[in-house]
Structure formats: C-alpha cells, structure tokens
Amino acid sequence: MQVPILKQRDYLIASIQAALTDADLLQLRDALVSQVGTYRSRGVIVDVTALDVMDSFAVRTLRDLAHMIRLRGAETVIVGIQPEVSFAMVQLGLTLEGVSTALDLEEGLAYLDKKLRTITAPPAGKKRG
Amino acid sequence: MPGQEITVPVNADIDIVTARQKGRELARDLGFTSTDLALIATAISELARNIILYANSGEILLSVVENGSRRGLKVVARDDGPGIPDIERALEEGFSTSRSLGLGLSGVRRLMDEFDIVSEIGNGTTVTVKKWRL
Known about the structure:
Number of helices of chain B: 4
Largest interface: A-B, 23 and 25 residues
CATH architecture of chain B: 2-Layer Sandwich
Structural class of chain A: alpha/beta
Distance between the termini of chain A: 60 Å
Number of domains of chain A: 1
CATH superfamily of chain B: Histidine kinase-like ATPase, C-terminal domain
Shape of chain A: globular
Radius of gyration of chain A: 16 Å
Order of helices and strands of chain B: EHHEEHHEE
Radius of gyration of chain B: 14 Å
Number of strands of chain A: 5
Low-confidence stretches of chain A: none
Number of strands of chain B: 5
Structural class of chain B: alpha+beta
Low-confidence stretches of chain B: 98-102
Oligomer: heterodimer
Strand order of the largest sheet of chain A: 1-2-3-4-5
Helix content of chain B: 25-40%
Mean pLDDT of chain A: 92
Strand order of the largest sheet of chain B: 1-2-3-5-4
Largest sheet of chain B: 5 strands, antiparallel
Mean pLDDT of chain B: 89
CATH topology of chain B: Heat Shock Protein 90
C-alpha cells in the first residue's frame, strides 16, 4: 500500500493511512528523498497517526528518512505518534534521536514554518536611521 | 475462547503485519488495555521479523492461556532456521547479528510478562512469550 504524498507550499506531506510493510516503508523513504529534489521542497512531514505499531524497523526507517532528507537540505518532522505507540517505543528502547517530532499535522506545519523562517529570514535588527 | 489457536505462516514482510494484526485482535477480545495492545503487537512484530531475518520462514501461533482466574495471550514464534549459537549473548541488551537496531530478543522480553526460548543449532528456534491481563 503506497503512501500518498501531497505537495503543499514548500512542503511534502506524507500521510500514512494504514499499516505498512517493510517494503512500503522503504518505498516511502525513497520517494520522499527523491521528491524533495523534484519539487525543491524545504520541509517534509510524515504523519504516522494511523500507525498502531512502530517497531524497530519502522523507527529505524523513519530515522534514516529524516537524516537522508537533511542531507538533501530539507527538514523532516514526524507527527502523530500515538500515546500507546510512544510507550511501546520507550519500553523497547527505540529512539528517534536527531529527528524532530510534533503532536499533529498542525503543530508540524507550525514547527517547519518557524524553523525554516529562522534559517532563511535575515535577522530582525534595528532599523538603521 | 480458550483452546483456540491461530496460526500465521511467516514467509514475507506482509506476514509480519498480518501476525501483529491477528495478535492485536485476539488480545483486544481478551480485554487488554490499548497500551498492552501496542506492546503485544510490537513484540509480535519483532518476533515475526526475527523469523524473516534469520530463518526466512516459520510461523507465529497465537492462543489464549489461563492461570486460575487470570487469562492471557500466548505467542509462539517458531522456525526451522539455523538456530542461535549463543542464547545468553542473543539476550544481552543491544546484541543483534542482523542489521536491525540491535534490540531484538531483550526488547521483546521487556515488552511481555513471560519469555522462554529454545534453540538448537540446525534445528531452529522457538520463542514463547506471554502477556497476562491485570
């Protein structure tokens, strides 16, 4: 089952709709890493709200995805990790170190807006007389 | 419900998804909390993945167990793969010979209440785990 990827402004949004196989996850990773170039996107959001399990493979693949996309010059944020899923991840010792997360899609968009603005906008200094 | 056993053949990555979904359904029927459902499904996922990684094929057996008034879910992950040469080492935190995150069996043990493993070189591996309802 392929994950639909939407393009919105400078961002790519991948909304996972159902359980994914390992192959689906790898396909998603490769598609996003590639499309960041195609669309010159600056941010990527992966919405995992629908996932009721994030095992070691899923976590590793999402982490790889985020790191690869950073190497491509864009930022990734994983949104929608469910409370039970976060508990299972902690019990299993799985971390998303170095990967940004946000509560939901709205927070993820706000995070990227803020992060990318601070990178690209000139520092707001005093007006020179 | 006791006595019922579900067998899920594990031969490809789609079977990992099937195994954990069947396990989750059975656990939900048993009345486990949503948190326990996530722990159980994650444990099954890791066990099924181990089968694919190390033995290529095997099966996951799901059943209901009883102990007095307590009921629980038993998961057996069985394969006819090469077996594990050093079980002690395989259970160490962070040990894994595959390309996974190296959490493997020790992680599964943490997710469940009971854990047992039998492995013989050349004769495959059987991991049995149980989760009891509170």
